[in-house]
Design goal:
elongated; four-stranded antiparallel β-sheet; about 180 residues; Topoisomerase I, Chain A, domain 4; 5 helices
Length: about 180
Amino acid sequence: MEQIISDTSAHMQKALDHMESEISKIRAGKATPQVVDGIYVEYYGNPTQLTQVANVTIPDARTISIQPWEKNMLGPIEKAIIASNIGLNPQNDGTYIRLYLPPLTEERRKELVKKVNVEGENGKIAIRNIRRDGIEQIKKMQKDGLSEDEAKDGEGRVQGITDKFIAKVDQLCKDKEKDIMTV
């Protein structure tokens, strides 16, 4: 029983961490290195993460500066950024690639909040699926001889863990929404 509950909790934590990383990629008007996470560059025939072939820095609140370790990587990095569809146009000056984040309009902020809420809902769905799997394992144990009281207690504990993680998802979404809507 303890194993099922700890596994369920660990899986829910993974789902929460994944949702948190997805939300961190949604830009809130401030430049962060996470904006370029997930961009892969063609590096000697292999798709390689941008952060593995260049130095990504944030010189000010609205600029991301990318300095490749090899000058011949400027073109492929520029192409990868355009192809990644992050909504930013790279400015190549021969040494650096700079991404300027425009100020967010009210309409764009609302779109980003919707995106955050979709990610939050996906996180909740993942957590609920993990809860369902945990409860199914407990019911299977009950068929194999676990008492009904112990099974109900285990299901209650799984539900308590689920409620805790869903509250964390809601808090993450609320914090990100506040961050996005702050002008």
